[in-house]
Structure formats: C-alpha cells, structure tokens
C-alpha cells in the first residue's frame, strides 16, 4: 500500500515567508536610515521615497502576519491601560522625518491625561496604515485626534487631500464591511485589517468599528477607529 504523502500547509509556508521578508525589509530600512544619517544630501528625495515604500510594505507584512494569527485563532489580545497621547506620539516617531521633508504639518489633538484600554500592537499597525495613506494623498496637513464619546475611544486621522473617492465611500456605507479584492488596483488589505482590529476589541457585548468620510480638514479624508 502506498504511503500517503504529507499535505503541504501553504498558509504556514506563507506565514513563514512573510516573517522572513519582514526581517529582511527591516534591515533595508535600517540601512537607509544609516545612509541618511551619514550623508543627508545624497539623493534625499529618492532615499525618502525608498524609506516610505519600505515602511509601507513592512507594515503590510506585519498586518498579514497578524491576520494569519487571527484567522487561525493564534492571536491573543493584549489589552493594556494606555496613555493615548503618549502612545500616539511614540507611534508617529518613524513618520516625523518623512512628513517634514514633504512639508506636511503633523498635528496631535489629544488630552495629556486621556487613558484607554486596547491592544497597542494592533492599534499601532492601524495608525501606521492610515498615516501612510494620508502621507501619500494629503496636500500639506495631517491631524490625529482622540476623545471619549459614549464610552468609546474615538481615534480620528484626518488630512486636507481630495478625500476618499465617492465610489469607495458609497460601497463602504452600503455594506458596512470591508473585503479583499485582488481584481482592483487596491486589494483593500489595509481597511480589511483595520476592520478586524476593531472587531476584536469588545466590551460588554459591544465591538469596535471603523468609519470613513470626507469630513477631514477642508473636506479631506477622515478615518475613525472606535474602541469600546
């Protein structure tokens, strides 16, 4: 009798590859940082673009790993008491130089004493994802604000770009969900990840949510993450 060949778990292989790629990409980012520190005048625009794209891809790999763990029930929420302003300021540190070099003003409107409870690693990835998007589409302003509303933390990221496309807003409002579509120019991985992060945060049978609209700065885009 022929022995059965062992089945190949492609999801595990993918997760392993993503992990290795993330490590390699981190080395690329660190090398670019070293080059910039040692010779800030050597092709500044090209280097900053490489740094931006590298960090964007790195964040996507982080999201893929998290989604893999969530899908396989291997991710365990680490809810901690967090000073929201300190957390946001620390999360934004890698973005500051890129924003400055593009003359994009970054504003934080969060009370110094605001405390809330959430998984810092997941929310950090959400902020990185939306700020990366704002960096690409804003004119010259990005603002991050947070406040409590009806026992929810409302974290908003706004810009003064042209806003989200109407078709995207209509689809989001109609379905109230996000999905991945590989047949379009954008897979929607970022918003899909943000939705999963929101859904994971629950309190007294209430789940988190995300919202998109064009009520940002001067009609620009606004992303809102609500955490109960």
From TrEMBL:
InterPro entries xref list: HATPase_C_sf, HATPase_dom, His_kinase_dom, Sig_transdc_His_kin-like_C
Q: Key word Phosphoprotein present in the record?
A: yes
In which organism is this protein found?
Answer: hydrothermal vent metagenome
Cite the Histidine kinase domain residue spans from the record.
16-228
Protein name (database record): Histidine kinase domain-containing protein
- Return one GO MF term: phosphorelay sensor kinase activity
Key words of the record? Phosphoprotein
| Lineage of producing organism | unclassified sequences, metagenomes, ecological metagenomes
């Amino acid at each position: 009798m022929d022995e059965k060949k062992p089945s190949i778990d492609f999801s595990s292989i993918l997760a392993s590859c993503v992990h290795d790629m993330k490590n390699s990409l981190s080395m690329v980012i660190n090398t670019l940082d070293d080059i910039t520190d040692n010779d800030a005048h050597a092709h500044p625009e090209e280097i900053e673009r490489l740094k931006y794209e590298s960090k964007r891809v790195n964040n996507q790999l982080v999201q893929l790993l998290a989604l893999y763990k969530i899908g396989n029930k291997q991710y365990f929420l680490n809810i901690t008491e967090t000073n929201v302003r300190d957390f946001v300021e620390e999360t934004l540190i890698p973005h500051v130089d890129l924003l400055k070099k593009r003359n994009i003003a970054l504003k934080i409107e969060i009370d110094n004493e605001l405390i809330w409870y959430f998984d810092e690693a997941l929310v950090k990835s959400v902020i990185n994802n939306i700020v990366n998007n704002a960096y690409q589409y804003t004119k010259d302003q990005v603002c991050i604000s947070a406040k409590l509303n009806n026992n929810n933390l409302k974290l908003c990221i706004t810009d003064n770009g042209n806003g989200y496309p109407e078709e995207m807003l209509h689809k989001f409002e109609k379905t109230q969900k996000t999905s991945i579509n590989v047949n379009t120019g954008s897979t929607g991985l970022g918003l899909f990840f943000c939705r999963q992060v929101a859904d994971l945060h629950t309190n007294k049978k209430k789940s988190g949510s995300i919202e998109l609209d064009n009520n940002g700065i001067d009609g620009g885009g606004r992303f809102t993450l609500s955490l109960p």
